[in-house]
Input
Amino acid sequence: MRRVLITLIAIVFTTKLVYAQGEVDERSMIFRMNGLEINTKDSSFYANFRFRMQNRMGFYTQGGTDFGISEWDARVRRLRLRVDGYVLSPKIGYSLQLAFTRGDQDVDNTGIANIVRDAVVFYHFTDNFYIAFGQNKLPGNRQRVNSSGQLQFADRSIVNSTFTIDRDFGLKAYYNNTIGAVPFRIKGAISTGEGRSVNTTDNGLAYTGRFEILPFGEFKNEGDYSEGDLEREETPKLSLAGGYSYNAKTNRTGGQLGKEMYASRDMGTAIFDMIFKLRGWAYETEYMKRTADDPLTFNEDGDVRYVYAGWGNNHQISYLFRHNLEAAFRYSIIQPENKTAWYERKREVLEAGITKYLRKHRIKGQFNLSYNTEDGQWNIKDKDNYWGALFQVELGI
Output
């Protein structure tokens, strides 16, 4: 690692970058553990370059009392490059994020390698109000808006994977202020409803709104969007939030995600979540519910693709011990409703995790053990129930 850092620093201080009509002063290019920072002499351009990767290895059992391996999961889960900064003035910001692994590019659903995750421009009217235009995350459930690099488990919950509204292209607005000494945030978006990197869209749009309130004040270092109490909050901190997204005439099973359906459908997604932290303890929960008047679509051969209509609930609790070693536990449930229940079964997952933080979430090692059940059958002999184990290392700047 030391040799890599020395090599990067040498490249930085021997390279000249050109912006607008002049050169960037090499002395303004700084390499820190929070990224490579570049400034022009007149401060009209700023960029922060970061990368991160997640390497993992794990397995799932065959089910019941047969503990043979049914599937290995050994791969680079994520490899991303991110650039944030501003042009002309700090009022005009931007954020770019590229992904270089198959699991990050939605290839299996779309057949296209979508390397662009974020490409968005921000304009800050005031310190409290700004808008965004382009492709980035919608103001949806907290766990999705959390960066995947800020999670205390290797993956998000089954509730998120089933009901999240994810990234989309459109116009977003963000406003924050206080009521007395209590901070609150209002977020809204009008977007295509079809997800990232689409060439064309239909005449339906998605409308998303979210409200957050923090009754005990702000978290340290924006810890309400980072899992685990790594800041060891000295006083109680709580964030409560609710939101709703209506997606009209979407063509994908999950709105912004999933496979193409055989006909368009309208869907609504309600979201309620909270997070609490105090002295190394952290608890968070999310409830999500998706509705669709007619969730099923069929082709001429009778094949079906559908909206997952139903609800899900996720709970996570953790404690950060000395030497930045964390133990975490999670329980998740998803329950299909309406006609979706003809094709899907209730699922529940219990997970335990151990994380060793070397530099907070930027450099960490994680081990997770999970038990997966269907239809409420917790009998360990049930052939549909299975175990999973996963080890993951995250490294980033």
Summary: Residues 292 and 299 are 19 Å apart (CA to CA). The chain has four helices and 22 strands. Residues 1-27 have pLDDT under 50 and may be disordered.
